[in-house]
TrEMBL record:
Keywords: Amino-acid transport, ATP-binding, Cell membrane, Membrane, Nucleotide-binding, Transport. Residues 6-240 form the ABC transporter domain. Pfam families: ABC_tran (PF00005). Belongs to the ABC transporter superfamily. It is a peripheral membrane protein. One of its GO terms (cellular component) is plasma membrane. Gene3D superfamilies: P-loop containing nucleotide triphosphate hydrolases (3.40.50.300). It is an enzyme of class 7 (translocase). It catalyses: a polar amino acid(out) + ATP + H2O = a polar amino acid(in) + ADP + phosphate + H(+). InterPro entries: AAA+_ATPase, ABC_ATPase_HisP-typ, ABC_transporter-like_ATP-bd, ABC_transporter-like_CS, MetN_ABC_transporter-like, P-loop_NTPase. It is found in: Cell membrane. This is ABC-type polar-amino-acid transporter. PROSITE patterns: ABC_TRANSPORTER_1 (PS00211), ABC_TRANSPORTER_2 (PS50893).
Amino acid sequence: MTEPLVVLKDVNKHFGDLHVLKDIDMEIGKGEVVVVIGPSGSGKSTLCRAINRLETIESGTITIDGKTLPEEGKALAQLRADVGMVFQSFNLFAHKTILDNITLGPIKVRKQKKDEAEKRGMELLERVGVAQQAQKYPAQLSGGQQQRVAIARSLAMNPKVMLFDEPTSALDPEMINEVLDVMVGLARDGMTMIVVTHEMGFARKAANRVVFMADGQIVEQNTPEEFFTNPTSARAQDFLAKILTH
Ligand SMILES: Nc1ncnc2c1ncn2[C@@H]1O[C@H](COP(=O)(O)OP(=O)(O)O)[C@@H](O)[C@H]1O
Ligand SMILES: [Mg+2]
C-alpha cells in the first residue's frame, strides 16, 4: 500500500447502549479507493461521519494525513475542508444558483477570490457535465445532475479524501450511472475515496478493496474480485446472496 492517508485505530462509538463502531482498525492509502458494504444498521454511515467528525468517537484515534482530528474550532473547519463528503441526499443550498453553491466554500473557507472561485467552479461543473446549468437553481435540475453538482462542490475545496455515503441510493435508476461515471473518473484520476455503496459494478470497476461491515465490525476485506466471488464469512455470503437476488 502507498503511504496511509486516513488511519483509524481501535475506534469505538456507542449510541446509548448500542455499540455501533467496535474496535475499528482501517488504513486507506493515498489514491486508494475503498468500497464499504454491509447490511443496513452496520455502522457504515457512522464510520463516514466519524472520519469527518460529524460524530464524535469515544476511544481510539482517527488521523488524516498524519493529523489527529481536532475537537473543534478553526482547525476542525480546516480539516473538514480536507475531507469532502457526498451524502445520499444532495444537500445543495436551494436558494443559491448552482455556481454559487460551488463557490461558497472556496470563498468562505479557502479565502479564494470570487472570480478565481468561479473560474475553477465552471471547470468543475464542466468536468461533471453540468456546466450548462450553472445559473439555475437546484430544484431545476434532475437528481442525477444535483448529485454531480454535490460532487463538484466537494471537489472545489481540493479535498485530500472524498467520502461518499450511498450517493446513488436516492436516485432514479436511469440516473445512477451518470453519477457513478463521475466517481469512476475521479478514482482513475487518483483521488483517495471511501465509498459506501452496494453498486457492485462500481466496486469492480474502481475499488482497490472492499470492506464488509456487520454489527459495527469489519468482518472481512478483500479485492472486489475475491470478495464478490469468494466471500469467506457466513455473514458476507448471506448478505451477497440477498443483494444479488434483487
Ligand atoms: N444519531 C443516532 N442516534 C442513535 N442511534 C443512531 C444514530 N445514528 C445511527 N444510529 C444507529 O446506529 C446504528 C448504525 O447506523 P448507521 O451508521 O447509520 O448504519 P448504516 O449506515 O450501516 O446503515 C443503527 O442501529 C442506527 O439505528
Ligand atoms: Mg447508512
